[in-house]
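haha ok so turns out i had the wrong file open the whole time. this is the CORRECT one, sorry everyone. sequence first:
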Amino acid sequence: MTVLAKIARSGLDLLYPRDCLVTGEPVEDDSPCRYLSHRGIKDVFLVKEPCCPTCGFPFFGELLASRVCPHCRELEPAFRHGRTLMLARDAGRTIVHELKYHQGRYLLPDIRALLRGETVFCEYLAHTVLVPVPLHARRLRERGFNQSLLLAKAFAAEANGARVEELLQRVRDTQTQTRLNRKQREENMRGAFAMKNGKVAEPQKRYVLVDDVFTTGATLNACARALRRGGAERIDVATLAHG
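then structure:
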């Protein structure tokens, strides 16, 4: 950032103090984020190991012995492994909702700042092809952006050697999944995705599907199947949040 830009930003911060998205308090000058205070960052449940190798959900004490994630007991994944940056609860849910439903693209630099402190997550993404989960054309027109594509670009910016390729398209306009159970979500996603015309996947490359939230895995599973039909053999997933 240039000196002039820093001065301009300081002036804006003076006129319009930055309040933390999570706590509502002013963001400290030494916070690594522009819209998350130190207390707001502390309230974000960043996922650490040990966690489920399939979806990334953290193993809490009562699950550590069995190593069985309750979210994956009925899942038959078409992908190999999964990681998530945070849990979609409390502060994490606020971040996801602001990004997805309230035009919260201004949070992307803060998401990158959180990523810089998560070495294991970034190493998981290193030297991979990041494939964002696509939106249907109608939904894209309504929202104006695909949050999964924006997240994939943010992930690639912080992961060594990672790059983004938009290989998939949404060929069926599915209903919202918010109120659907696992079985209904799987049926809703059946045949919803396909490779873009002229796009192929290379068997030797590792592809990581990127989405905003892992809930039941139905959407990511449908995307993984489409990628596999397109030639991919090494498919993993990564999400901003889980829950």
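The chain has a mean pLDDT of 89.
again sry for the mixup
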